[in-house]
Amino acid sequence: MNKNKLFKHIDFWAERLGSYSAVAAKCKISDAALSTVRAGKYGAKEELILNKIAQGLDFKDKKWVTVRSIGNYRRIQQVFEDASDQVMWIRISERAGSGKSEALEDLYNQDNTGAVVLIECEEWSPKQFLMNIIEKVGLTEKARYYHSQAMLLDMICGYFNSIAHLNPILLIDQFDKLKPSAKRQLIPLYNKTEDNLALIAAAPESLELEIQKGIRLKKAGYDEIDSRFGRSVVTLRGATESDINAICEANGLTSPEMKAYIWSSLPKVQKLTPVKSPSGTKEVMISYVEDLRRLKTLIKSGKLQVKRVA
Fold first, then answer.
1. CA triplet 129, 134, 140: central angle to 5 degrees?
2. By the 8 A CB rule, do 49 and 29 touch?
3. What is the arithmetic mean of pLDDT over 15-31?
4. Are strands 198-203 and 169-173 parallel, antiparallel or unpaired?
């Protein structure tokens, strides 16, 4: 682990939360432990405490470079800016591997106000879902005195309403994984923070099938959830050949031959795309790569191949 990067991340969170003591509480360690590790005097078990701090602060020492110029990233960035500017709730639906999670995490990491909150969902119950939001905003200690689910929700709503001047935005990744009863928590969350909290929920296409089926079968909550998002969904086109080349170059593969090989190795789909020209806008058939995880695997394999040859 890169300690210097982690220590800068600690400083960033101390500024965000207001103190190093608040950082220690967020990481579930003592003030003394944080102070000792920052002084480089923790001793033999330093790696364990560093890992605990990294986990508590969502720090990931990544070697992979996120490229902000590609189409999918720019689309998600525009959604982020629109949601924040107009205090909107927006859903992003696209197949796994499209780069949703990477883009949302990068946008979250760029924030220096503390008003952007990112959670990556698992198969949580309503209370687990609410507690994960509470942990992310640093209210875990206060939550000890809130015993019911309704009280936890009220605490979350009160927190976001209190920082409305900062334009808070809640980013929910893997929203589809939540249990239906946990998804329904968005209904009162919207009602109690309307015009004060923006929200982006990202998930694979399966979520849309679940919502539409729930509406059709009149299952509890689905119609109301769909309504909170304006009954609309944002989709992504994928990565063009120039996008793929940019990702290759940013991550260490600059050879024209390797870039051409990777592009030819990726499954592609053809999509009609509006393209501007001097004579006006016309629709052109363009090839897109939809699974960027496959691209990442090919780039890593390509770098190993180059290393062996060298």
1. 125
2. yes
3. 88
4. parallel
